[in-house]
Amino acid sequence: MRGLIGSPFKTAPSALLAALFLLLPLVISSAATAQEEQEPSAVESEVAQGKAEAAVNQLKEPLYSPFIERYVLDELKQLRTDMAAQNVQLTEKIVDRQLSAADKAITYATDTVTYFFYLIAGFSSLLLILGWTSLRDVKEKVHSLANEEISKLVEQYEARLRSIEEQLSEKTQHIEHNRDEIELTQEIHSLWLRAGREQTPVGKIAVYDQILELRKDDGEALTYKADAVLELDEPQWAINLCLQALQIDSQNGNAFYQLACAYAYLEQWEESLDYLRKALDISTAYRDEALEDSAFDGLYEMPEFIALMGIQSEQAGGGKEAS
């Protein structure tokens, strides 16, 4: 308190303001009372105001005293004390509420565990009433049921594992088959490249035979072999090869074309035209090849060949002379 009070010169402004605030209600009440008693004139009010100002100007000492300052400081101290007490009360209320919530939670957990044990006891009593004479029987029954369920689950998972193993085995076989097929395709492709580099019909036939050893149902190899056989003047052999290719693929246009060439070598013109017509029905690209193929030189004078090729008679004659 000594530090708060201090010197009257240091605390004069605050004490003066406090004194003014304390005296202000008295001045207002006295002014109101005087106004109620009599209403002075404007001249009188001006005179009174002048006197008040002169009185204020003549003041040489402050209107407060150490007692007023002491009163204000005591009020501030009491205000701080009240606020501290209120803070303590709020803290106590918060702590009480937290303790109450924790107590309720513990009570709820304890009641739940107690009810659970009551439920187990009631269930056990019910089992005893139904014929299970002891907890040992209950334990054995639970173990047997658990073993049955576990065995069922094991059987289900074993069946699933067997199914997965079968699927994996099939996938593995499929992958191995694809790998073998890829290797076979690569080898056959190399043989086709080799056949393209061969210059003699005999060499080509040997390569085509190797392709047919690797893949017996290769119709293209049969038809290309038939073409090489025709270069050796073996039309009947070529016909047999083309018929084998048609058994593999009935829409093999190259086989029909080679048959037409073979029958043209045998001068069986009707059969040659018939197979050439079938080849053109599959692909019109054989028309240009037939016009340049020397095997069909004997057909240029036939109207059926001219109509089939879609050429004029003069072009047919010119083509024959060129051949």
What does this molecule look like?
The protein has helices spanning 2-5, 12-37, 42-57, 66-130, 135-197, 201-214, 219-231, 235-248, 253-265, 269-282, 286-292, 303-309, 313-322. It has 323 residues and is mainly α. Among the domains are: 2-102, no CATH class; 216-322, Tetratricopeptide repeat domain (Serine Threonine Protein Phosphatase 5, Tetratricopeptide repeat, Alpha Horseshoe), CATH 1.25.40.10. Helix 6 (201-214) runs antiparallel to helix 7 (219-231) and helix 9 (253-265) packs antiparallel against helix 10 (269-282).
Task: Describe the secondary-structure layout.
Layout: H1 2-5, H2 12-37, H3 42-57, H4 66-130, H5 135-197, H6 201-214, H7 219-231, H8 235-248, H9 253-265, H10 269-282, H11 286-292, H12 303-309, H13 313-322
Helix pairs in contact: 5-6, 6-7, 7-8, 7-9, 8-9, 9-10
Which descriptors apply to this entry?
323 residues; mainly alpha; 13 helices; disordered N terminus
First-last Cα distance:
141 Å
Architecture (CATH level 2) name of the domain at 216-322: Alpha Horseshoe
Kindly report the CATH topology of the domain at 216-322. Serine Threonine Protein Phosphatase 5, Tetratricopeptide repeat
Helical content (DSSP H or I, runs of 4+): over 70%
The rounded Rg comes to 62 Å
What structural category arises from helix and sheet content?
Answer: mainly alpha
Spans of at least 5 consecutive residues whose pLDDT stays below 50 are 1-13, 312-323
Largest sheet: none
User: Based on the structure, what is the oligomeric state of the protein chains?
Assistant: single chain
Q: What percent of residues are in strands?
A: under 5%
Structure summary, number of beta strands: 0
CATH top level of the domain at 216-322 is Mainly Alpha
Coarse shape: elongated
Full CATH superfamily name of the domain at 216-322: Tetratricopeptide repeat domain
Overall average pLDDT: 76
Per DSSP, the total helix count is 13
User: What letter string, H or E per element, gives the SSE order?
Assistant: HHHHHHHHHHHHH
